[in-house]
Amino acid sequence: MTGLVAAERGLGETAIVDALPEVVVVAFAAVTHLADPWFLFALLAVGYWFASDGTAGSPRRAGATAIAAVTCAYAATALGKAWFAVPRPPGAMGPADVPTWLPALLSGWYEAQVLSDGFGFPSGHATGGAAAYLAIALLYDRLWTPKTRYVAAAGVALAVAASRVVIEVHYLVDVLAGLAVGSGVVLGALWLAGDPRVRRSAAATSPAGPTADLDPAPAFLTAAGLSLVAAGVALTGGHTGEVVEAGIGIATGFGGAIGWRLVAGDEPPLSIRVAVPALAVTGALWVGAYALADSLPVTLVATTVAVVAVVALPALPEYAGRPT
């Protein structure tokens, strides 16, 4: 849909950003990590594994639904980027203007943060950040007070969105669209999961709480479907990089749905001795999936296995304890 979103879509924000002190830009380059895909999925996995009854009425259902919601958000991002296919700001293409006062050890990190390829609309970081932190605020409904959760979620999501503009890898329009898409997708995913607050059913006020009967499988499958559409759009447009991203979304969606079939939903929190090696193994699979992106079948298999393992892991102690 070329033309619906202009390649040059700045609103004057570049002039403001260019006037900021270098130390502010460096600080925002660090803030942007709060919505890196690896960070968000690690955060959500840890919440899913370790959350207790003090954080949600049904912590495993809440955690899996949060993962499914963010998977849907990334699928929507992949579809949007392939559909609109508009570039990032010129500053994202390089060369990077690295502050001379940065230590040599940080210069490479900073350059990696402020240079980015691929399409720019909507912002994946803004979309993923809005989705992840809103999902956490909504689903971990026994953590802090509602006001505290929502203010914290909004603060982090807005800080991440601002960081993408400050380091000049996105226009303001890109991050505003990302915030809107991420928030809307979360509400849609919760509706698919059966959240009574979104469906406006009486169960929302039940003693068991709104997370008691959540089923994340429909949201996982929707993410896979959206990613499949994104892959088709990307293939039609010849956008190889977006095909890989969409493929990872397909694998994540199907992997999540498969993993959830192995879980009852009422499992206790994981022990550290199970979670630490599991995090190392699944993390290695994720890294390998991206490192081997040139081989799409390998990437799909590695991603699927990693997501199945993450979602099914709470059931492992029960399976391991069964007599053979």
From TrEMBL:
It is found in: Cell membrane. GO terms for cellular component: plasma membrane. The chain crosses the membrane at residues 23-50, 62-84, 119-138, 173-193, 214-237, 243-263, 270-292, 298-316. It is a multi-pass membrane protein. SUPFAM superfamilies: Acid phosphatase/Vanadium-dependent haloperoxidase. InterPro entries: PAP2/HPO (IPR000326), PAP2/HPO_sf (IPR036938). Residues 65-190 form the Phosphatidic acid phosphatase type 2/haloperoxidase domain. Keywords: Cell membrane, Hydrolase, Membrane, Transmembrane, Transmembrane helix. It comes from the Archaea. SMART domains: acidPPc (SM00014). It holds the Pfam family PAP2. One of its GO terms (molecular function) is hydrolase activity. This is Phosphoesterase PA-phosphatase related protein.
